[in-house]
Design goal:
CATH topology of the largest domain in chain A: 60s Ribosomal Protein L30, Chain: A
Order of helices and strands of chain A: EHEHEHEEEEHEEEEHEH
Distance between the termini of chain A: 41 Å
Helix content of chain A: 25-40%
Strand content of chain A: 25-35%
Number of helices of chain A: 6
Oligomer: homodimer
CATH class of the largest domain in chain A: Alpha Beta
Amino acid sequence: MTDGIRVIPVPGLPEVRPGDDLAGMVADACATAIGLEEGDVVVVTQKVVSKAEGRLVEVDPATGHKPLVESESVRILRRRGDLVIAETRHGLVCANAGVDLSNVEEGWAALLPEDPDRSARRLRDALVHRFGVDVAVVVSDTFGRPWRRGVTDVAIGVAGLRPVVDLRGTEDALGRELQVTEVAVADEVAAAAELVMGKSSGIAVAVVRELEPDWLGSGSVSEDLVRRPDEDLFR
Amino acid sequence: MTDGIRVIPVPGLPEVRPGDDLAGMVADACATAIGLEEGDVVVVTQKVVSKAEGRLVEVDPATGHKPLVESESVRILRRRGDLVIAETRHGLVCANAGVDLSNVEEGWAALLPEDPDRSARRLRDALVHRFGVDVAVVVSDTFGRPWRRGVTDVAIGVAGLRPVVDLRGTEDALGRELQVTEVAVADEVAAAAELVMGKSSGIAVAVVRELEPDWLGSGSVSEDLVRRPDEDLFR
């Protein structure tokens, strides 16, 4: 029996600029705030990853951000007014294909990282090297959902954590075989982290501590969490 | 600055049967495990709520559970093979309209509670009375999502917690007005709780402690989290 998990905000990350050593900055902030322990999952928001990786583009005042949304999309699922729900080349489905005007300077937009799983792996490698313990990294972003109001954070990149834990075939509490219980652990970790980040307080890093150790391992969002179009009933 | 939140599993809930005093059983389990503190959010899975409320029905072996799915649905969104994605009369969209054969006895199915917000309110009233502190309750269930593999837990009923926290208009860290940041806090709480419940270990209750106190308040899933069909691009 576990005593539960802790979800801890990590303050102190400076404003991130293109080319910054984000891993070093995250490591410094973690070291100051709480250190890192074996099995910690470090959740980092997409926005600071995109900034460090230089994924900022100027918005043409004449056209606005719409051409950026088009170029970031491989498939448009829905349009209503200014809102576009689009699939990105990563297979992620979200508003405006992830083109984001909030928390960036006026006249600029942040795009999603080119390969958020790679971003997560690089951050993880640097953190493991720095702290000498095995940790996982989740790159999170804030997505809307059909049918339900409000946004939640989900994982767009992961390293060192199994994004989906397959409990199919595990017996349930009454000894019957469960039918479908593939739990999207990485998304639940991202959601939990969002609860301590807050949208306006500038917290871009959180640590989820004491997560079930069996869930640490390999995997990626692109391979494990993105539903293939042929499996999907809503594309 | 918060020191973060804790997500604590509550073991010791006995097998729940129709007519049981679920609030008393949850209260006993909480008292034994960790007590309850002002501002705690107690997350209880739909399955034990449905059982206590007698929402168990025999499955006709000749027809299987399909007629139950039809009668629990107000709208069928998609069908593929045995899988039906349906909208319930609560406005929830999920597989098989919430008709669930796992963790119930062979030959039986559990239906969703008639009014999960009311279930949450009743549980909350009893817990507040018993412990003399103000707590919130979330009734959680496990739903799949379009576009992403794996299931996550979401809130289907809530009491004492604002299901969606509207941060629209709050300034972001750069002083610009945020455009859309209605965070589905109740869903993120349910997701966090699922991380300590585990599918096969029979944990049906968890406590989320030290959540932002501003988020406690009134609201319901049916009013605040269910997206109205006219706002929805995917119905």
